[in-house]
## 1
Amino acid sequence: MLAGCGVREQIPETTEPYPVSENIITDEKPQLSGSENTLVSEMTVEEVFLEDSMEFAENSAIHTDPALLYHNSGTEKGDIVVCVNAGHGTNGGTQVKTLCHPDGTLKVTAGSTAEGSLTATAVSGGMEFPDGTAEREVTLQQAVILKDLLLEAGYSVLMIRESEDVQLDNVARTVLANAYADCHISLHWDSSEKDKGAFYCSVPEVESYRNMYPVFDTWEQSHGLGDSIIAGLKEQEIKIYDNGSLPLDLTQTSYSTIPSIDLELGDKLSDRSTEQLYRNAVGIMRGIDLFFGKEAGDYDAYIRDTFEEIPPEKEEVSFDAEYPALVDRFTALREEGYVIYEAVPLTSLSMKTEPVSLSETVEEIPFGTYLAFDGVLEAEENVTFLHVTDIGNGLEGYVQSDLVVPVDYAADLQNISDVVDVTDDRYTYDAMMEDIRELCQKYSDILVWQNAGKSLCGRDIPLLILGNPEAEHKFLITAGIHGREYMTSQLVMKMIEYYADHYDTGSYGGIGYGQFLEDCAFYIMPMTNPDGVSISQYGEAGVTEEYAAVLRAAYAAEKQNFIYIRYSSEETAWYDNYRGNIAESAKLNEEDISYEEYLRLWKANAAGVDINRNFNIGWEADWGKTVPAMGSYRGTAPESEPETRTILSMASSEDFECYINYHAKGQVIYFDSYGMEKENANACKKWAQLVSGICRYDLSATAKPTERSEYGSFGELVHLSYNKPGFTLEIGRYTCPLDSSEFPAIFERNRETWAAVCMEALRTE
């Protein structure tokens, strides 16, 4: 057992080691300078293999290579063998599984493998540092430096690996350490990006785990080893995370019959210069001396002597250099045939071992994680899975295709402009107008602001031109035509900011954003129904008293049409059942919808006219509501509303190549109308397929002779009256108004679509 700060009171007699290979690599040790403990006459280095007779050996799946046992003889510390395990570095290890616990029980904490898992990756691939250096390379550098210092101090060393690839999984490494060493230290760097400092993985305070064999016999000694090494690192003034430990259920801990720790020496942003690696080694050495009750040598002198022979090192890559390093990494992966994807779930995405929803989880992938897709597609009923590798840590597995999107350009998030606030659920008209003023001032050379018209309540309906107004290729973008869908306004405003901010740095398909915006121009109407947006956000306070009376009358006329239902997604929400297509038995409500909730769902303008049913295209069809309402009322005449006429004026002002309309919700793209010409229908489908391939929204064909088209809509006007290509993107998954938690995924899904549209326009010139 351990006492005090971790000094071992008594080291049990080491059992007779398992037979080792007769292949002795060398029997002479060069003369080393340093502490008095280095006065040795002989050192042998032997290859040691996993033997079937070793305890737990049957649980190893990868064990064809040997480890190297350096044995110092004739020194005070030579009888103590320290296992130095350079983390990762087993090719193919991510494709093999081993039991998390030798007794077959389930994992008790989450980590790279989820809590409750039976098996774990045999050896994970590790993460990459911002400059593209693999973690396995740095752990090996650290291990070799530590080995040399241990041998210099007189200890014996079991080196798990001294090359880029050793075919020993985590179980085999631990079993070899159990057989030949007195303690086991596995070296790693954490995958976070906080420069969090060093820590060791302690044993979780879970009774069943601490009582499991062999954890029961070793966990206190392992904590003593970890505490001693953290104390040694502190002496070197090395940054320590929290209290120096983090509880995790690890395969290594679960199989260890000797004191054993996983030591994380920092994370992606921590210093890993050669000098720092030597300082780390000295700190670990001091901890080992403390744990075994040995006198520390003059390790600082050893470092000074060693550094006289080390040439000056190049300046370390800083955090600011992460962005170009990531771009370079993307380029290298693409040259190897990979496609880069980004995870865009609302929270996290499960990477599975097999292309089956119920298969074991490799890891939970957070939003924004970059993945390398190798081209392997598998399908399970209606779900498509992609075989990918997590670029950050090298883990491989299958992910659902609808929760990832392909990306061409890695945005420099450290420098991105932050004018448009995307954290507020209510993106208001006033906030948008202030953002427009600031963006146009900041990017005056590529952004033009005009007022296209006014709403019923006198609000300006702005038009922004992004790019070259004289360009040959022009696109009209509309958003916010339905009041409660105001996240569409927030999205296009953030897209404007994104492209303006990355004008000089962004690229798609090898062409810079600047070139795109010189040859193309986006005419953008970010909020075509500002009164409707204000009603959805503020109720009666969003309009004058004249129109407040319209709202009250509309509520009185149709409040009984609204029923509260549960959708197939298990989401519950109010549904406008004016068509009577939902059975009475589906109702969850006993009372009518409240006035406040009714206005929150408002789609129309201040007069209760649905702008997207007010265009002169099939307007005369008698299918919608007959009085002003929150939505679906076409008005007293086509083009009766100022918002409708403003959109029409802009739509006919230029020879637009394509019209892009943003609505919510559904994650779907509508691209046709019944009765449109075949050539235009094909063009619409081409544009929609292009964008769908990026944002991963489903394509929906609505032009079926047996079904009613959405008469009076802007989309149909474009298709049938203008005979032009156009499509509608329905963003978001849940009921409008969309919650701000959806915005990050919506933005990343749509971020590169405008660049792709430009590239297609230039390609087909």
## 2
Amino acid sequence: MKRFAALLETLILTPSRNRKIATLQGYFAAVPDPDRGLAVAAITRDLTLHHVKPALLRGLTESRVDPVLFNLSYDYVGDLAETVALIWPRQRGGVLPTLGDFVAAVESLPKDHIADQVAAWLDIATPNERRAMIKLATGGLRVGVSARLAKTALAAYGGQPLAEIEHIWHGLKPPYDALFAWLDGRAARPEVDHTRTFHPMMLAHPIDLARDLAAMAPGDFQAEWKWDGIRVQVITYGGDTRVFSRTGDDITRAFPDLADSVRGAAVLDGELLVGADFQPLDFNCLQQRLNRKTPLKSHLSTYPAFVRAYDMLFDGDEDIRALPLVARRRRLAAWLTANSQSRIDLSAAVRFADWDHLAVLRATGTNSGGHEGLMLKRADSAYVAGRPKGLWFKWKRDPKVVDAVIMYAQRGHGKRSSYYSDFTFGVWRDDVLVPIGKAYSGFTDVELGRLDKFVRSNTVARFGPVREVAKTLVVEVAFDSAHASPRHKSGIALRFPRISRIRWDKPAGEVESLAAIKAQLLAAEG
């Protein structure tokens, strides 16, 4: 545990990507199994421990420290793990468990014994060791290392191509003993079952119109609509179909109507949408079915799921990811013809003469609706995991904007834990402000500092971690789309809201009414 805590502290304090990779390589070389594999799982957030809850930690701390002092410290620091790590009174010396023993104990101890064991560990730990244990146990570990960077470090450690690790990653489980045996040269590369394992997806870059289009020949690219759903991978073999989200989460149980309908053998890439007869409804309708372990019966009929497929990774047992996009698309079209589907169709290519022509098509849209812009893909591109440069681009529609008044603020997470950075904003309904959304991005670090100062200087009430502020600050909010929503008090749901401009100059009374905004936004959405 001491080595793990030291690793996390070094990663947090190291801005250099190459130094982070070197630090991880050194850790992999010095630390035995299963600790190094568990460390990787923790950093990539593939390790979940269940018994240590924030309320337990807070209760333990308040039994040892004046609750008033704890609350004042927590309000100042803004992060529970950091606060407990600093304020916990060290009682005695001792030996901490290894990372493997810590994880095993947290998972196996009865719930009524876990509090005493956690307190005993915190008693003998230093502040950085306490922080590491708490972050690990509660799932709040953020150290500035992405899953891809961790895999890059593994590839560098073992002298293997990153693509090889990407290809097998989702078929492996912590603590990754077989992976390290291969990287250490003690065993062959682990084999994974491609018929049951999620395969890392190929991602696109946002297009820079001034830079990218000037260097791109229209004839080299294929255009498709960017559908307004969620990216999924469909793996179907032997009558067993699994649906994975972009992050590799198995969401099959949430979409049985889709999974039960698929026929054939393949691994497909596409967009999950809802609607009858392949006519997509808006994202708000799809959202009714997301984040549910099992769907409501009414949703199966009202919001039937389907997939608009745009790529194929495996045609039966044949891995075709190395083929050019145009060849994969031909194979996908042939597969759909040979295996008639009631819930999967082909995302058609958009024909265009030049970039000006495509810009017009992007602005006018498609008759079937449900898109949020265009995708541009090199016709000769292989299917490469990650976000390779120059191959795939997303050209989204211009965002919509609305002025709103900040109503509430909450602390952020990670490096923003000391700042009020999550904002609820609203517009006027008669003479009352009604919330229409939340945003935590779109502003610079300098603007964040000014926003934080505004919140602290203009707080009128507190509700736990949330502060209500004086209704005086206007912000311009950008968003991708707006939909009618009975779940929200305002009747509007905004998709991907972010603060695009802080209107220090605009009086809050000049923000438009909810009725006017609903009429404009919902009419524009059509």
## 3
Amino acid sequence: MRRSLLLSILILFSTILFAQNISVLIEAENFDSKGGWVVDQQFIPSMGSPYLLAHGMGEPVENASTVVNFPESGRYYFWVRTKDWVPDRPETPGTFKIIFDEKEYKKTFGVNDGWQWILAGRVKIGSSNQLKVELKDETGFEGRCDAIYFSKDKNDFPPFELEEMTAWRKDKLGIPPPENAGEFDLIVVGGGLAGCGAAVAAARQGVKVALINDRPVLGGNASKEIRVHTEGLEFYTIVQELSTMHYPNGDAGAILATDTIEMVVREEKNISVFPNTRAYTVNKTENKITSVDCFHTETHKETRFEAPLFVDATGDGWIGYWAGCEVKMGREAKDEFNESLAPEKGDGMTMGNSILWNSVEVESTQKTDPENKFSVGWKEVPWAMEVAKDYNATRGEWFWEYGLLMNTIYDAEEIRDHLFRAIYGNWYNVKQDPENANLQLKWIAHIAGKRESRRIMGDYILKESDVINRPDFEDGFVEEARAIDIHYPRGGKYDFLTEAEFTKIEQYKIPYRCLYSKDIDNLFMAGRCFSATHVGLGSPRVMHTTTQMGVVVGYAAAICSENNCSPRDVYKFHLETMRERLDKIKSGAKFKH
């Protein structure tokens, strides 16, 4: 009798505990329909996840929606992870509502300081065990939602710490261990022009390549999402193929550029492209990488990429960083490499990030905007004026740049958002002038264009004297003629503007030894994370030059595959083969600006 009573109590306790733990996690980036919201994956290192952004340039975007399936009916508490992106002002620009089964919930979201889980209330799930959920943007001014968590237990509060929250997300979403992506000879992580150059060059020599990109389109800074124009020497024919006619920064010409890049890459049968795929860690044995683990930025499905060789074309040097390579970030002291353009003391300053944007003049605001919302006056944006002040411009340019004195990786969201405030406040100023009555905002990037972050150290470090004195490196397979171009804060009242200091040079060479890690035996670098000082990076950081780096790395990877050797062995034993092959694809193109 006593045993039977004890068993009944245990069963009852288990039932209550199970009921309390019934829960559902919905990632906003996994909504069935994104509506007008966009997936933003840039800030995973600092906030832990991709999220949905209401990037409406001042006009509310179409609702995002999804249908949520619940394990059982009943009442669920729910939490929403969001933030107020201008928390230092009484006015909140990025508010949104949640609609459950066509009924708008009373609470306003996007009003809390910093990324937080906000316990919002309860919602009733009927006998269908389903709930339609919509995100309703209220302002068009960059509202953001990461996830919604439902639980029958009010005390089942989601975790805050990133590491704990990552493990919790995987558990709640039921994500299995990474699946193997297939057999490859070379893994290229990063779908900017440097990564595309590496992939195409290697593929054309019979190397089976996986090209991993965390955005939906290729091209990186040159893509239609960011629209930075390309510069530098088109030294190899592959660089010419991936390049397009010059277009102004922020111009729609980048749409054609993206189409060209996608066409060139996807025509190669030896390249498998993995868009919306974010690398998050590496696995290694001793000083060799064995695989890279990634997840899909919308579904969170995990995939493992194994190969003998890897290319870090992430820009931020993530693969080398995770593998334990020596990395540098910021400015070296003048005496460290005897650089006249370096500061007396080293510091953490880098070149900053930019958000490009433009506007268009229409025939009449009455034709396109009967309510006259875009005419003189536009909208008041008091939360932006502290940044923009009285600045007045009708398009953005490279010098709209911020974050030089911040960390361009971990402070990237704050940097981007500061530039948003500059743009929207500036536009308010523009629209006070009657002459601008027919001007409308046409396009604003929500993905930042980066110039500098981590640099992975190779067997050689490019420095100022190499660019100015132009040594004839025997492995100098990348060439450039662009001035050393280093950016500094402009000073004055507009903190979102910079200036550039140019040092004219003649054509110089970058050694292949800058394009592989000195610490990891099977890791190449292509792009702005190559082995250089801050000053050494100033000239070759542009996209035609970094595409050259990718091409050289792709050819070296083919030689490694043929000879079962390391990137360093290519320098030691196969330079003549490299030279012969690369000579065949030299374009003879002159410098383009």
